Amino acid sequence: MINLRSNLNTVEPDLESANDHELIQRVRGDDLQSFDPLVARHQNQVYRFILKYVPVRAAEDLAQDTFISVYENLDRFKGDSKFSTWIYGIAMNKVRNYLNRAPEQRFKHDSADFLLEKQSKETSPLELLEQSIEIKYLLDQLPRDLKESIVLVSQEGLSYEETATVMNIPIGTVRSKVFRARQILKDIVSEQES
C-alpha cells in the first residue's frame, strides 16, 4: 500500500517545479519518484473533498485509495481535462462506492482540523464551527446527486464543465442540478427564518 506521507518532504527541487503533465509523463516513463509531488499537490484538496461526505477515518482510507487508483490508472488520463478534475472523478467514485456499501455511514462526522487553517482575526473558531455545522446540515437535506453538484461547483470551485466531467453527466444537467440545489437550500433557509 502506498504511504501518502512517505518521502513527500524529500521531493527533488526539479520535481517540485514541474507541472502535473510533466510529472505524469515521468511516472509513465517509470520515474516513480515523480508521483510523490503529484500526491503532495493534490492530497489535501482530495481529502477535504472526501471529508464532506464521509467520517474522518473513512476519508483517510478513501483518499489513499483514490491515489492508489490514480497511480494504477495513470495511463488512462488523456489530458482532456485538468488532472485535478480527473482525480475528483476518481474520488467521487470512491465516495459513491463507500456510501452504497455502507448506507449507515451517510451521516458524516466533520473534523474540526480545517478550523485552524481558516482562522482569521474577524471570525472566531467557534463561529467557523457554527457556520460549517449549518452548511453541513443544509447540504445533508439535499438528495445525493444535487449535493454532489453543488459541492463541486460552490465549495470546490469547479466549473460547470469540470463538474460535468467529474460526475459524467452533460453540462446542462449540472446546471439544472445546481439550480435545483440552490432553490431547495433557499427554501429550507426561508422556512427556518419564518
Q: Strand tally, please?
A: 0
CATH topology of the domain at 1-111: Rna Polymerase Sigma Factor, Chain: A
Shape, principal axes of CA atoms: elongated
Biggest sheet, open or closed, and with what strands and sense?
A: none
**CATH C-level label of the domain at 1-111:** Mainly Alpha
Q: Can you tell me the CATH architecture of the domain at 1-111?
A: Orthogonal Bundle
Give me the number of helical elements. 10
- Rg from alpha-carbon coordinates: 18 Å
Outline the low-pLDDT stretches: 5-9, 105-121
Sketch the topology as an H/E string, one letter per element.
HHHHHHHHHH
Helix/strand class: mainly alpha
Fourth-level CATH superfamily of the domain at 1-111:
RNA polymerase sigma factor, region 2, helix turn helix motif
Percent of residues in helices comes to: 55-70%
Distance between the termini: 52 Å
Strand content: under 5%
What's the average pLDDT? 81
